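Input (structure):
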């Protein structure tokens, strides 16, 4: 408390995002936008994988299934 120690003047970084109990409303909105865009990104990835599999093995896969 006297100020003679180095620890008294040390500036610590903020806690990680996962460990905080309270978030600013703007931060919540930003996280929702990120999650929404990631849903579209994952959907695009799944569709592109399905199209790629169909282009590579479409005829053989359909003959095998049906």
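Output (sequence):
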């Amino acid at each position: 408390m006297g100020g003679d120690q180095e620890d008294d003047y040390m500036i610590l970084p903020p806690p990680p995002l996962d460990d905080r109990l309270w978030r600013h409303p703007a931060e919540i909105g930003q996280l929702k936008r990120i999650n929404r865009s990631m849903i579209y990104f994952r959907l695009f990835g799944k569709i592109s994988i399905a199209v790629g599999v169909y282009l590579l093995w479409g005829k053989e896969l359909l003959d095998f299934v049906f």
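Notes: The mean pLDDT is 79. The chain is about 60% helix and 0% strand.
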